[in-house]
C-alpha cells in the first residue's frame, strides 16, 4: 500500500516536533509502534481507532491514529489517505491539528497527530445543546483564519463540520480530518464530497466548485453552534438537498441580529456573493464577541 517511494515517508523524514516542543535526536529515525506507550482510545472511525499515546524516550504526548490497510483497500481509498498525508505535512497553523509523521507495518498505518485534549466540538455541542455568542464568534474567527491559511496554500477542506473540529488545551478550535481535502492550484474542482447538512448548493447541482464551499460551511457552522442544529436539516437527504438548493432556512427568534446578518450574507446561493473569509473575521458581530486566544495568521497568508 505504501511503497518506499511514497513522498512523505523516507529515510530523511523529520523527527516529530511542534511549535512549542521538539523531540531532539542524534539521528533521524524511522518510527515503529514499539516507540510508543498506547493509552486509552480517543475515538473510533470507519477505518480504525485513534489512541492517546506517549513516546517512550521523551514522554511526548500525542494522538496515534491507527488505520487498517485492508479496510482502506476494500473501500479503494488509499489515494485519499496519501493525499491527506501530503496536505497535512505542509500545514502549520494554531487552529489546524498538527500532523507530525507516519509509519506503517504489514497490516496497519499509523498517523502521529497532535493531541487535542478538549475532544470533538460535536460532543461539546451535544452536551451544551447550543453555544452562546462569545463562544460561537470565537470559533467562527478561528475557523475562518485557518481556512484563509489553507486557501493561501491552495488547499480546500470541503468537509467542515463539528465532528471534524477538535478543541485544544486552551479551548481553541483545531481543524482536523483532511480526508476530503484537495490541493488544487486553480482552486476549482468538480468532485462531489462532504457531509449532507454542510454541502454547498453548487456541489448538489454538480457544478464546478472552488474555495467558496468552505465559506458556505462557516455559515452553516455558525448557525449550528448558535441554534444546536444545522439550518437545512430535514427528515430525508433529498429534502435536505432541496432546502440547500433553495437556501431555505429560518432563524429562531432568539438568534442575535448581528449573527443573522453574518449567516445570511454567508449562505448565498451564488458563491461569488458570499462574504469572504476576511470579511467574516471583520464582521461587527464577530469583532464584538470573539475572544480568540491566538493572534490571527491571515495577514501573513497574504504575503
Topology (SSEs and partners):
Layout: E1 36-44, E2 48-55, E3 61-68, H1 69-75, H2 78-88, E4 99-104, E5 108-113, E6 119-120, H3 121-128, H4 133-152, E7 155-156, E8 165-167, E9 173-175, E10 182-183, E11 188-189, H5 201-204, E12 209-210, H6 212-227, H7 237-245, H8 257-266, H9 277-282, H10 284-289, H11 298-301
Antiparallel strand pairs: 1-2, 2-3, 3-5, 4-5, 6-8, 7-10, 8-9, 11-12
Helix pairs in contact: 4-6, 6-8
Question: How would you describe this protein?
Answer:
It contains 11 helices and 12 strands. It has 303 residues and is of the alpha+beta class. The protein has 2 domains: 81 residues, Phosphorylase Kinase, domain 1 (2-Layer Sandwich), CATH 3.30.200; 183 residues, Transferase(Phosphotransferase), domain 1 (Orthogonal Bundle), CATH 1.10.510. A 5-stranded antiparallel β-sheet has the order 1-2-3-5-4. A 3-stranded antiparallel β-sheet has the order 6-8-9. The protein has a two-stranded antiparallel ribbon with strand order 7-10. β1 and β2 form a beta hairpin. The N terminus is likely disordered.
Amino acid at each position: 500500500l505504501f511503497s518506499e517511494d511514497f513522498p512523505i515517508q523516507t529515510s530523511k523524514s523529520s523527527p516529530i516536533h511542534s511549535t512549542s516542543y521538539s523531540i531532539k535526536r542524534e539521528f533521524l529515525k524511522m518510527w515503529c509502534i514499539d516507540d510508543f506507550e498506547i493509552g486509552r482510545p480517543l475515538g473510533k472511525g470507519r477505518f480504525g481507532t485513534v489512541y492517546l499515546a506517549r513516546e517512550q524516550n521523551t514522554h511526548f504526548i500525542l494522538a496515534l491514529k491507527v488505520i487498517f490497510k485492508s479496510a482502506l483497500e476494500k473501500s479503494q481509498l488509499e489515494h485519499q489517505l496519501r493525499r491527506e498525508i501530503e496536505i497535512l505535512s505542509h500545514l502549520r497553523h494554531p487552529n489546524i491539528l498538527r500532523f507530525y509523521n507516519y509509519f506503517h507495518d504489514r497490516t496497519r498505518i499509523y498517523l502521529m497527530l497532535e493531541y487535542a485534549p478538549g475532544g470533538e466540538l460535536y460532543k461539546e455541542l451535544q452536551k451544551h445543546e447550543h453555544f452562546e455568542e462569545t463562544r460561537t464568534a470565537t470559533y467562527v474567527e478561528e475557523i475562518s483564519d485557518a481556512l484563509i491559511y489553507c486557501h493561501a496554500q491552495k488547499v480546500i477542506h470541503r468537509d467542515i463540520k463539528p465532528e471534524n473540529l477538535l478543541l485544544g488545551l486552551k479551548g481553541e478550535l483545531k481543524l482536523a480530518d483532511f480526508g476530503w481535502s484537495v490541493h488544487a492550484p486553480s482552486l476549482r474542482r468538480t468532485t462531489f464530497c462532504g457531509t449532507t447538512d454542510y454541502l454547498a448548493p453548487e456541489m448538489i447541482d454538480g457544478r464546478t466548485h472552488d474555495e467558496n464551499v468552505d465559506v458556505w460551511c462557516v455559515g452553516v457552522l455558525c448557525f449550528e453552534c448558535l441554534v444546536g442544529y444545522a439550518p437545512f436539516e430535514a427528515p430525508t437527504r433529498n429534502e435536505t438537498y432541496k432546502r440547500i438548493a433553495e437556501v431555505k432556512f429560518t432563524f429562531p427568534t432568539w438568534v442575535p441580529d448581528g449573527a443573522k446578518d453574518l449567516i445570511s450574507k454567508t449562505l448565498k446561493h451564488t458563491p461569488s456573493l458570499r462574504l469572504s473569509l476576511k470579511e467574516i473575521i471583520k464582521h461587527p458581530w464577530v469583532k464584538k464577541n470573539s475572544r480568540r486566544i491566538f493572534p490571527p495568521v491571515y495577514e501573513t497568508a497574504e504575503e
